[in-house]
Structure formats: C-alpha cells, structure tokens
C-alpha cells in the first residue's frame, strides 16, 4: 500500500498548470511498457482503446472483471503510476460507484477518470445527482488510505460539435467543475474542447488542474501549456493510429 500511495502522491505532483503532464494512453501491459520506455512519467488507460483491444465496444461493454484484471496486469508490468478510465463507474447509484472505485484501487490504480454522461443513455447526469456520485467516489478513495487522483470528466463539449462550443457551454462546464471540486475531485477533464479562448478561460476559472485531450482540432502541447492546461491525454488516438498501421501492413502482406 505504501508504494501505491507514493505513486499516487507522485501522480498528483505531476499536474502543474502551465507545465502539463502528457499521458499517451495505453490499453494493455504491452502498450504500457512501450509508453514507459518512451519516457512517460505515468500510464493512463482509455476506456475506448481498452474495450477495443479486447473486442468490445466502448460504454462499459467490457466486463468490469476483465477491465480490472487488465489494470492489475499493467500495474505489475510498469514502474510508473497507473490511472484508469472508469467511465461512469459501472453503475448509476453512488454505492455502486464507490464499490467500483474500491475495486480499482485494490487492483493497483492510483487515479481514475469518472465521467458525467449517462452511459448507455443520452445526455448528462443532473449536477446534483453527479455530485452525489462524485462524493461516493471521493469517500471510497479516502477510506482506502490511497490518495488517488479523481479526475472528474464532463462530456459537455463532446456532446456538441466544436463549432458550437461557446460561452454558454463554458459556463455550464465551469459550474460543474466548481460543484465537483466541492465534492472532492482532484482534477477536471473537458474532452472535446479545443478553442484556445475557451480553454484559457476554463483554466483561469477553475482552481483544479485542467485536462484536455489532444484531438486533431486541439492546439499543440506548448500552446496548451501557455493556456494553463495541467494534463494532456490522448484517449483513443494512439490505438486508432496503431490499428490503421496494422491494417495497412496486413493488407500489404496479404495482397502481396
């Protein structure tokens, strides 16, 4: 437990506004070891690539037991902090979320992504309901004795096309960030957001370390650092690029 707690504290310290940690998302022990060899300071899984690697669709379709076993194997394979994408906690009720978080901690994870979209449904959980879910996750972390990094994700920007991102959505995101912070989270994740002005405004309005995902329409790393971002992740991008390469090579080999 001491080693796990130390890794958790190290992971917290890597989140610095203006000097973001880069998490090039892995999906299994082999990919995690490659990312570690490349010089990573921590390993992060993404729900989409993990599910895809095991033949499942995203959205909590991969059995929790399998996802947890995968995390356990990744933790054993690398000498770095490992944070897990827990999607919506594999349940709506706060007590289910708490149980999932506890099991992920027991598997060796030192951090989690926890989203506010309704998995398997439409839209987002009401702020009040999501706060209760976040509070349950935070309580489970506290009870474990491991200072895990709880990264609260909002899907506000993913639910809208980039050209529709505006001040109204930003205000909604800031409201959620403040509510989740009071509920005990460690960071705020706004995937899909790529507008420089909105990113900078979010980073200034939220005391939490802000996480942005490096999609095609998102500014480069140095610019994100200048805007105040503290964490840059890659989500499904590495797996998709690997899959395209593998398919191309396979077609070349098969066709001669």
TrEMBL record:
**Keyword Chaperone among UniProt keywords:** no
Output the superkingdom of the source species.
Answer: Bacteria
Q: Which UniProt keywords apply?
A: Lyase, Pyruvate
Q: Does the keyword Lyase apply?
A: yes
Q: Name one Pfam family in it.
A: PEP_mutase
InterPro entries attached to this UniProt entry? ICL/PEPM, Pyrv/PenolPyrv_kinase-like_dom, Pyrv_kinase-like_dom_sf
Please provide, alphabetically and separated by semicolons, the GO molecular function terms listed in this UniProt record.
lyase activity
Q: Which Gene3D superfamilies match?
A: Phosphoenolpyruvate-binding domains
The protein, known as = Isocitrate lyase/phosphoenolpyruvate mutase family protein
Give the species: Mesorhizobium erdmanii
């Amino acid at each position: 437990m001491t080693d796990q707690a130390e890794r958790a504290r190290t992971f917290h310290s890597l989140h610095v506004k203006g000097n973001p940690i880069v998490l090039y998302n892995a999906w299994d022990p082999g990919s995690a070891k490659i990312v570690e060899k490349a010089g990573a300071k921590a390993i992060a899984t993404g729900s989409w690539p993990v599910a895809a690697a095991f033949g499942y669709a995203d959205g909590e379709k991969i059995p929790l037991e399998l996802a947890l076993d995968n995390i356990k194997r990744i933790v054993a394979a690398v000498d770095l902090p490992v944070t897990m994408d827990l999607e919506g906690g594999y349940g709506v009720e706060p007590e289910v979320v708490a149980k999932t978080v506890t099991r992920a901690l027991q598997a060796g994870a030192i951090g989690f992504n926890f989203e506010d979209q309704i998995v398997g449904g439409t839209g987002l959980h009401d702020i009040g309901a999501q706060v209760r879910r976040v509070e349950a996750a935070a309580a489970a972390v506290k009870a474990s004795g491991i200072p895990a990094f709880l990264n609260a994700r909002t899907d506000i920007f993913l639910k809208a096309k980039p050209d529709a991102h505006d001040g109204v959505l930003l205000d909604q995101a800031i409201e959620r960030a403040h509510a989740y912070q009071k509920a005990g989270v460690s960071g705020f994740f706004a995937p899909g957001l790529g507008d420089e002005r909105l990113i900078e405004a979010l980073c200034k309005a939220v005391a939490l370390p802000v996480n942005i995902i490096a999609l095609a329409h998102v500014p480069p790393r140095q610019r994100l650092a200048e805007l105040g971002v503290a964490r840059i992740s890659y989500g499904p991008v590495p797996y998709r690029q690997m899959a395209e390469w593998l398919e191309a090579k396979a077609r070349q080999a098969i066709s001669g």
